[in-house]
Design goal:
single chain; 250 residues; Rossmann fold; seven-stranded mixed beta sheet; 7 strands; globular
Length: 250
Amino acid sequence: MLTRLMTLLLPALVGSAALACATASKDRSMEVERHPTQQRRSNTLMVLLPGAGDAPAAYVDNGFVGALSEARGDIDVIAVDAHASYYFGRTIVDRLREDVILPARAEGYDQIWLVGISMGGFGALLFSQHHGELIDGLVVLAPYLGKGRTLRPIGAVGVRDWEPDAAEGNYSYELWRWLKGYQDRVSSPGHPPLYLGYGLDDRSAKAHALLSDLLPDDHTFTREGGHDWNVWTPLWKRIIASAALPPAPQ
């Protein structure tokens, strides 16, 4: 089950030694599953990043693609096989840029949104941290947000009062330095609109609540439940029914 896989995988996934020595998928292009709009090629593309242990088809099997098609049939979808090797090899950002995002821009998409669950949410945030100018919006569901040694000091004072050190920190510290820019987006270019969803019983709910504190109230969606599709699919349906998505073309 995904929750168990995440418990086992993520401590190793984010460990610096594992990241430094693992090179799987370093030069391998990402494979994608395309779900174009039935009427015509859209001007908007949703790029879906799976969680640990999930194939791109999980987004179809759990109703994400169907719900989006029903709510907004004018949006194209690409589900990306962004598996754990890209994270272990520290190539997730480069491969997404070269294999997915830049080709999509070259195809003429005006709006590109990243959608990620758990590990995929972490990947979506990492990409936007480095290439926020290439993304028009983000939806992350129960994203992995770092280890306790990073999160505890932030939670102790509150994320809005947390002042990052001037010196560069580890990957999760630097991610939170970037995330903190969401509290004042007017003076923080490169921070695309971010929508967050999570289960209130998720083991990382405290970390998710910290991120929520940086966002407008209508950018956070919660429900009872833990770290599984029974929570994420209903949240996704609420998000796409809200004003989160880009407007339909006229």
